[in-house]
Amino acid sequence: MLGSTASAERLQLELISVSSPRVSDGDPLPADYSCKGSVGNPPLRWSRVPDDTTSVAVVTDSNGLTGGEVNWVVFDIDPRTNELAEGSVPVGAVEGRTTSGKVGYSPPCDARENYRFTVYALKGKLNLKKGESLDTTLKSIAAKTIAWGRLTTAHIE
User: Fold this and answer.
1) Per-chain mean pLDDT for the chain
2) Based on CB atoms within 10 Å of each CB, which residue in 30, 97, 141, 154 is the most buried?
3) What InterPro entries does its record include (predicted)?
């Protein structure tokens, strides 16, 4: 969802390994992490972040089968952090607005969609305020991305 130019540039960037103890790449998103559940975001882990990373961002979105939606944006995560706990945000991290305008995790609801949890290694902090506009936040992430990785679910269980 960062735009076609950003997508083309990402192909040349280093790859981060992204996984979860509760969500497997290519499998359905457990209902607990959807609008049917009450847990919030799933736990995520990542590795192979470049040494020159100064902050990390996580964006959760749909792949656009029915229009595309951003469900969560978290940025200015300490680069020494390599995981997000279930239903939480790391100390010092900042959440941006989602497509719906909500600040924080907006649980996915469309069972037909595939949902992507993308981790971005950034050169620099975004230094944006909590609840900054989605467009501004995504453009800032795209401008500072030096590596990325993704875990993709195949609809909601």
Assistant:
1) 91
2) 141
3) PEBP, PEBP-like_sf, YbhB_YbcL/LppC-like
